[in-house]
Amino acid sequence: MLHESSLADAADRLWEELPGHRVEILNGSIVVTPPPDGPHQETLTWLIEECSRAQARKAGLKYVSGVGLWLPTGPDDYAVPDFSLVDADYKDALVEKNCYAPHVFRLVLEVTSSNWTNDTATKVDIYARAGVPVYLIADRRHHEVLLYTDPVDGAYPAPERFKRGQSVPLPESVGVSLDLSVDTLLDGEG
């Protein structure tokens, strides 16, 4: 006998059955991402160190990875960005299931994996619709970093593109001054 359950319940079951995988609900569909590789994780560790050096905490920010972002695209929709810069009081914006309201996110970053189209297409749309001011993509498939900023009417303008050998200056709206190496964003620390 089959039991009906919500999409959120199905996502929870997958999360329990697939340790280390990231489970998200994007545009009403469950998306499962395999565990990240070593360079992916090195990039996130390096970002934490860079934010610490830039004194992000003193600027009223926290830097977190794997924290859920509640999305306005569907009743159960949420994403789990690889890395986020959030307001220090983000915990006050808990919606449910360890997901927080979009207004506390200053920056989200995704490092592409095997499901790179989710990061470079689907999430561009949903993060813009959520009003996330800065979306940074380390696109390892195309060897570039894309910087989307300041969504208008639920859409980002065309991104700034950065190639190897360059650095990405974060917009002032993030609240902390950082220039991030494209090579390290793509490859992790080598």
Task: Please name the defining characteristics of this protein.
190 residues, alpha+beta, 6-stranded mixed beta sheet, 4-stranded mixed beta sheet, 4 helices
Give the secondary structure arrangement, pairings included.
Blueprint: H1 7-17, E1 22-26, E2 29-33, H2 38-53, E3 61-64, E4 68-70, E5 78-79, E6 83-87, E7 94-96, E8 99-100, E9 105-111, H3 116-130, E10 134-139, E11 144-149, E12 160-163, E13 167-169, E14 179-181, H4 182-187
Parallel strand pairs: 4-8, 9-10
Antiparallel strand pairs: 1-2, 3-6, 4-5, 6-9, 7-8, 10-11, 11-12, 13-14
Radius of gyration: 16 Å
First-to-last CA distance: 53 Å
Order of helices and strands: HEEHEEEEEEEHEEEEEH
Strand content: 25-35%
The largest pleated sheet is described as: 6 strands, mixed
Sheet with the most strands: spatial strand order: 3-6-9-10-11-12
**Overall outline:** globular
**Overall strand count:** 14
Oligomer: single chain
Helix content: 25-40%
Individual helix count: 4
Q: Which stretches are poorly predicted, pLDDT < 50 over at least 5 residues?
A: none
- Average pLDDT reading: 92
| Class by SSE composition | alpha+beta
